Amino acid sequence: MIRKAKFSDIDTIMSIINETVEEMKSYGNTQWDNNYPNNKTFINDIKNDSLYVYEEDNYIKGFVCIDNNEAEEYKNLNWSLYEKCMVTHRMAIDNKFRNSGIASKLMDFCEELALKNGVRYLKADTYSLNIKMNSFFKKRGYKFIGKVFFTGKEKPFYVYEKILKEK
């Protein structure tokens, strides 16, 4: 089941983040670290009603944030459409449940949520060193749009888009 995150979920979410940061470090990906994302990030996501968790058997196995907040760095990219969009952020799956389809279920949810809200356009980005997420976006039919640089990161982030079709 996918539901909106609650403040009581923060400890579990941060546990997943800490595991994910350690895994990312193991293959040289410095997208996330001990400073970001943090408790405050997820508290704000919950306050903004934009954080969703995938829960099964009373256990949070993953999460994603989806909202309308585009990074300022997106402004100079050559998008296919210039209309209202939704943006996915901060997706992570508990290490014990990786490769079980949860990430796909969360992305299906994001796409359905966008369509329910009258939005047919999704955007996302991930660090160029995040091989797994870059591969995942391509597998999901997202189109590579370009590169952006975020403060404090030496490598670029790859930016993607997907135009949704009504189901």
From TrEMBL:
<dbReference type="InterPro" id="IPR000182">
    <property type="entry name" value="GNAT_dom"/>
</dbReference>
<dbReference type="GO" id="GO:0016747">
    <property type="term" value="F:acyltransferase activity, transferring groups other than amino-acyl groups"/>
</dbReference>
<protein>
    <submittedName>
        <fullName>Acetyltransferase</fullName>
    </submittedName>
</protein>
<dbReference type="InterPro" id="IPR016181">
    <property type="entry name" value="Acyl_CoA_acyltransferase"/>
</dbReference>
<keyword id="KW-0808">Transferase</keyword>
<feature type="domain" description="N-acetyltransferase">
    <location>
        <begin position="1"/>
        <end position="165"/>
    </location>
</feature>
<dbReference type="Pfam" id="PF00583">
    <property type="entry name" value="Acetyltransf_1"/>
</dbReference>
